[in-house]
Amino acid sequence: MKPINVGLLGIGTVGGGTWTVLTRNAEEITRRAGRPIHITAVADRNLDLARSVTGGKARITDDAFALVKDPEIDIIVELIGGYTVAKELVLAAIDHGKHVVTANKALLAVHGNEIFAAAQKKGVMVAFEAAVAGGIPIIKALREGLSANRIQWIAGIINGTTNFILSEMRDKGLAFADVLKEAQRLGYAEADPTFDIEGVDAAHKATLMSAIAFGIPIQFDKAHIEGISKLEAADIRYAEQLGYRIKLLGITKRVERGVELRVHPALVPAKRLIANVEGAMNAVLVWGDAVGATLYYGKGAGAEPTASSVIADLVDVTRLHTADPLHRVPHLAFQPDQLTDLPILPMEEVETAYYLRLRALDKPGVLADITRILADLEISIDAMLQREPEEGEDQTDIVLLTHVAREKAVNAAIAKIEGLPSIAGKVTRIRMEELKG
């Protein structure tokens, strides 16, 4: 049978991995796909690198736009990244009737609605398994494997850089800044780590999973995003003493008033499997009404793990290449005309439990003032930890764990507590997620 011809845009880490795995496992992949899949052309600004990786077995060009218009190419694999040129190339490929496989979560989180609409109009596919959690097949699980379920919530460790940093802070008791330097030295963090450590990368991925889980348009601009750069080693120690671990979670949840979409550090009970995901690994916990909890774990980045997902998409697209477009799996799991307008809730309407740490004068009446403020706002305390003051000090740390409360009420309580003359500095607030059904 005639091979499927692939044009590869970008042959860096993931592109090189895709070439290597596709070449190494060519026979197995052909047996699965029903026809050979060949990367016949590669576009990259570094022509020497492209020639070195491909060994002269593919046509090399530095003109990506010429490649996406090439009538001999059936599928474009976009591994350039970013929002701008990548968007132009993907839309040009679609306009020329080509299917697209991409690992670009930022592009899809920001421009996905436009890209999927263009693909729908042209009758081509846009596949993006590699855009979320690297080698973990979470998109396929949400879009197909769990299609019988009404998905209630998803909580994921979906950024390896931040998980590595938090694991090191817990294991070694080091400050955030020190561990970040080590992560950069080891190659886990970029020279500019902002997207990772401030939660933006995780929010891109959570946004895509939310749209697939609940059948809503992609709405990255409505996600609540907090990173880990302000976390202190003391909070990781206190969490451990209380039986919790701190993880940066991407969370999306269906509630009565709409959908929660948020990324932030969270205390997770240490007994949960996901709390024990360490280092640069990823894990996604999905709760469906029929199946209950399912956990997906593996490498969230790297050349060959991500290439595994890219090639899985290539196989899927090859199988469905000649299928009636109306009978393919929809991009966002639900039929395009069946997406709903469930609102994304503002963060102040979210309800969860809270960890509050405050620095207080060690004198009678302080706790009474704090508990009175919380009670007035209908926030109940679940547990408390109070340190003895260091010798010669008149201040101490008080840690409170609350029952479930609305964020709006907790914000009001924190403002009032910080206004007490007995409280020094700001209250540290970290949300808590039990991750039960």
Write structural notes for this entry.
The protein has 437 residues and is of the alpha/beta class. It has 15 helices and 17 strands. The strands form two sheets. Strands 7, 8, 9, 10, 11, 12, 13, 14, 15, 16 and 17 form an eleven-stranded mixed β-sheet that branches. A six-stranded parallel β-sheet has the order 3-2-1-4-5-6, sandwiched between helices.
Q: What structural keywords apply?
A:
437 residues; alpha/beta; Rossmann fold; Dihydrodipicolinate Reductase, domain 2; Alpha-Beta Plaits; 3 domains; 6-stranded parallel β-sheet; 15 helices; 26% strand
**Rg result:** 24 Å
Measured as a percent range, the helix fraction is: 25-40%
CATH architecture name of the largest domain = 3-Layer(aba) Sandwich
How many helices does DSSP assign? 15
- Low-pLDDT stretches are none
**What distance lies between the first and last C-alpha atoms, to the nearest angstrom?**
48 Å
Would you tell me the overall average pLDDT?
A: 96
Category from helices, strands and their pairing: alpha/beta
What is the tally of beta strands? 17
Sheet bearing the most strands, described?
A: 11 strands, mixed
Query: What CATH first level of the largest domain would be assigned?
Result: Alpha Beta
Q: Looking at this structure, what is the CATH superfamily of the largest domain?
A: NAD(P)-binding Rossmann-like Domain
Q: So what's the overall shape?
A: elongated
Q: What is the fold-level CATH name, i.e. the topology of the largest domain?
A: Rossmann fold
| Approximate strand percentage | 25-35%
